[in-house]
Write a structure and sequence with these properties.
Blueprint: E1 5-13, E2 16-24, E3 33-41, H1 44-50, H2 54-57, E4 75-83, E5 97-100, E6 103-104, H3 110-113, E7 124-125, E8 139-142, E9 148-150, H4 157-160, H5 163-176, E10 183-187, H6 191-201, E11 207-211, H7 215-224, E12 228-230, H8 237-244, E13 250-255, H9 260-269, E14 270-278, E15 300-303, H10 311-320, E16 329-334, H11 338-347, E17 353-357
Parallel strand pairs: 10-11, 10-13, 11-12, 13-14, 14-15, 16-17
Antiparallel strand pairs: 1-2, 3-4, 3-8, 3-17, 4-5, 5-9, 6-7
Length: 358
């Protein structure tokens, strides 16, 4: 029986995050779904919002993007406990275990109508806006245009919870268009970076180099398939990359840290006519000499956003082991301990992915 109220983390404003036990369970229309949340991962976007990053709350250069009050959390695994008869995906049935794509596209803008729904102009994203509340709660409503994907019930929750971040990781690697002749540098070995390692290895690059400031993450990156790992805090990684490539620089640089120095580092490490993929969400602005991109190196600079057309393949690859997951989820906490989870995720040391269970 579905209760009337539930436990949930509610963001009232930039300063007020409140765990409540009296939040109404969402009512659904005939074209929506209700999920019983099994678990939700904490994303860097969640912690950057918690810290008040301008990307989310706005500043003198950009408007506020979040719409409080809202329930955060978009890395969601749950069970369908109520299904509107007119929900658009007829393959999704009551009691299905599903993963949730982060965006609820409008279906009406020019991007949606041409199949590029992940860049929807309205851009409703679960977990940042009150009209599409997220999964840091016992129950979560899926919008009438929402996208969910079946997840095998025999897949461990520690593996299943990586479906959303790994789908985003696959899209970034797809954007890089890696060939078997490429020297690829992946900057950042967090949860998304771990997914990118697996996805990149499936493209068989000549050499995959992974950078991170934490040696424990570099050890895991090596285990997952990185050919070379480097710590920018301990060695001149730009010079080493240049030396390893006969003085040219890497062919592809994928930025997955959200740290401004990583962008500058990548522009130095990449060769002329190289491909730079920017994936991260930043907590601060980055300043670079853009003539490096144009006049000096004529780079292909590509963004990567969300996870279009990636979920089904990623869920299959997680299930059959083609995308390694062992040890990525390092902490599992009850939803009530969300603040401790955010702090662990924020610190990074001794952790990779933190998961909350309602």
């Amino acid at each position: 029986m579905i209760p009337k109220t539930m436990r949930a983390l509610v963001v009232e404003n930039k300063e007020t995050y409140e765990f409540r036990t009296d939040v109404p369970v969402p009512e659904i229309a005939e074209d929506e779904l209700l999920l019983k949340v099994e678990a939700v991962g904490i994303c860097a976007g969640d912690t950057k919002t918690w810290h008040g990053a301008a990307k989310f709350w706005g500043d003198e250069n950009q408007p506020s993007w979040v719409k409080p009050p809202f329930i955060p959390g978009h890395e969601v695994i749950g069970y369908v406990v109520k299904r509107g008869a007119n929900f658009h995906d007829k393959n999704i049935e009551l009691n299905d275990r599903v993963a949730v794509e982060q965006i609820a596209p409008c279906g009406e803008c020019k991007f949606c109508k041409t199949g590029r729904y992940w860049m929807c102009q309205k851009h409703d994203i679960y977990g940042f806006q009150g009209n599409v509340n997220g999964g840091m709660a016992e129950y979560m409503k899926i919008a009438n245009t929402g996208l969910v994907y079946k997840v095998p019930t025999d897949l461990s929750i520690e593996a299943a919870i990586l479906a959303e971040p790994y789908a985003c990781a696959k899209h970034a690697i797809d954007r890089a268009n890696i060939s078997n002749e490429d020297v690829v540098v992946l900057s950042g070995a967090g949860p998304l970076g771990m997914g990118m390692i697996g996805a990149a290895k499936l493209r068989n690059p000549k050499t995959l180099i992974v950078l991170d400031l934490l040696d424990e993450r570099l050890e895991k990156a090596k285990e997952f398939g990185a050919d070379i790992v480097m710590n920018p805090a301990k060695e001149d990684v730009v010079q080493k990359i240049v030396d390893l490539t006969d003085g040219y620089g890497c062919d592809i640089y994928v930025e997955a840290t959200g740290a401004p120095p990583s962008v500058v580092q990548g522009l130095k490490a990449i060769r002329k006519l190289g491909t730079f993929v920017e994936f991260s969400v930043f907590g601060a602005e980055t300043t670079v000499d853009w003539s490096i991109i144009g006049d000096s190196k004529e780079l292909d600079l590509l963004g990567s956003h969300l996870s279009p057309y990636c979920f089904e393949q990623v869920i299959e690859w997680i299930g059959n082991g083609k995308l390694p997951t062992e040890g990525v989820v390092t902490h599992t906490l009850p939803l009530e301990e969300w603040e401790e989870g955010f702090k662990i995720n924020d610190k990074g040391v001794g952790s990779i992915k933190v998961m909350l269970k309602p």
